[in-house]
C-alpha cells in the first residue's frame, strides 16, 4: 500500500540525441519531501473496481486552460500537514529549445515533425492540472476509486510526457540534420571562397608583376622623353635669344635707315624749294626773252618797211 506522500514520477531515460542540459534538468523532476511533517499514518483500503457511478476527477487534457473544480465530496478527516508537499514542486526546470536554422526568434518554441509545437505555456498548464489533480486526490483520499484514477492519470501523463520528449528529440534530430546540411553548405562555400581567393591572389600577383614591369618601362620612356624635351627646350631658348638679338639688330638698322631717309627727305625738300624758285625765275626769264623776241620781230618789220619806203620799193 502506498500513501500520497510516496507518489513520485518515474525518471525518463535520456534519448540518444537529447541535449545534455535538457536531460540533466528532466532527471531532477520529482516531488520534494515535506519540510515539516507529523507522524500520523493513514490507512487506505484496497482499490475496488471502477464503476460508472463513481464520480471521476476532471480530465487534465482539455482545451481549456482554467483550473478544474472538484466535485462535492464528503469532508475527509485528513491532516493536511501529513499529506506531503504540494505538487507545485513538480517542475521540469528550464528546457533549452533546439536551435533551428529556420527560426530562432522564439525561445519558447519546440518543433516537432508534423505535429503542433510544444511551448512552455502548455507544459505549465499540464503542471497546474497535475497540481489540481493531486490536490483533489488528497482531499478525497478516502475514496478508493479516486486513487486508481490518479494512478491511471499519472500513467497517462507519463506516457504523454514521454511522447512529448520523443517529439522534442525528433525536432532536435531534424534541427541537427538541418544544421549539418547548413554546415556542409557553409563549408563548401568557404572552400569555394578559399579557391577563389587563391586564384584571385595568383592573378593579383601576376597582374602586379606585369603592372610593375609596364610602370618601369613607362618610367624609362618618360625619362628619355624628358631628356629630349629638356634638350629641345635648351635649343629653343638659345634660338630665342639669337632671334631676339637679330630682331634688335634689324630694328636698330631700320631706325638708322629711317633717320637717313628723313635727312634725305629734308634735303630733297630744300632742293625742291630751290628748284621751284629757279623754275619761277626761269619762267620769268623766258617770258622776258619772248617779249624781247616779240619786240625784235616788230622792230625788224618796222625796219623793213622803212627800208622799202626809203629805196622806193612798194
TrEMBL record:
Entry superkingdom: Eukaryota
Biased composition (Basic and acidic residues): 1-14
Biased composition (Polar residues): 17-40
Region listing for Disordered, in residue ranges: 1-42
Protein name: Uncharacterized protein
Protein's organism: Lactuca saligna
Amino acid at each position: 500500500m502506498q500513501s500520497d506522500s510516496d507518489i513520485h514520477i518515474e525518471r525518463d531515460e535520456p534519448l540518444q540525441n537529447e541535449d545534455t542540459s535538457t536531460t540533466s534538468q528532466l532527471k531532477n523532476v520529482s516531488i520534494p519531501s515535506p519540510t515539516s511533517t507529523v507522524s500520523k499514518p493513514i490507512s487506505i483500503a484496497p482499490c475496488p473496481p471502477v464503476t460508472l457511478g463513481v464520480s471521476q476527477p476532471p480530465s487534465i487534457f482539455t482545451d481549456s486552460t482554467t483550473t478544474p473544480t472538484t466535485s462535492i465530496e464528503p469532508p475527509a478527516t485528513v491532516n493536511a500537514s501529513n499529506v506531503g508537499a504540494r505538487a507545485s514542486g513538480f517542475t521540469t526546470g528550464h528546457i533549452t529549445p533546439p536551435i533551428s536554422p529556420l527560426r530562432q526568434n522564439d525561445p519558447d518554441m519546440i518543433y516537432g515533425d508534423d505535429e503542433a509545437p510544444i511551448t512552455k505555456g502548455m507544459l505549465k498548464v499540464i503542471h497546474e492540472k497535475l497540481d489540481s489533480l493531486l490536490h483533489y486526490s488528497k482531499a478525497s483520499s478516502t475514496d478508493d476509486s479516486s486513487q486508481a484514477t490518479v494512478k491511471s492519470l499519472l500513467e497517462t501523463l507519463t506516457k504523454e510526457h514521454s511522447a512529448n520528449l520523443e517529439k522534442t528529440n525528433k525536432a532536435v534530430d531534424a534541427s541537427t540534420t538541418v544544421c549539418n546540411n547548413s554546415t556542409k553548405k557553409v563549408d563548401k562555400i568557404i572552400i569555394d571562397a578559399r579557391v577563389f581567393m587563391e586564384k584571385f591572389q595568383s592573378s593579383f600577383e601576376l597582374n602586379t608583376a606585369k603592372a610593375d614591369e609596364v610602370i618601369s618601362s613607362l618610367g624609362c620612356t618618360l625619362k628619355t622623353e624628358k631628356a629630349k624635351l629638356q634638350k629641345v627646350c635648351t635649343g629653343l631658348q638659345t634660338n630665342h635669344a639669337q632671334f631676339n638679338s637679330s630682331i634688335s639688330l634689324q630694328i636698330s638698322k631700320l631706325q638708322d635707315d629711317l633717320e637717313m631717309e628723313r635727312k634725305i627727305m629734308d634735303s630733297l625738300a630744300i632742293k625742291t624749294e630751290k628748284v621751284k624758285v629757279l623754275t619761277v625765275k626761269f619762267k620769268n626769264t623766258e617770258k622776258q626773252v619772248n617779249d624781247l623776241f616779240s619786240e625784235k620781230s616788230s622792230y625788224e618789220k618796222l625796219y623793213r618797211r622803212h627800208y622799202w619806203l626809203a629805196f622806193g620799193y612798194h
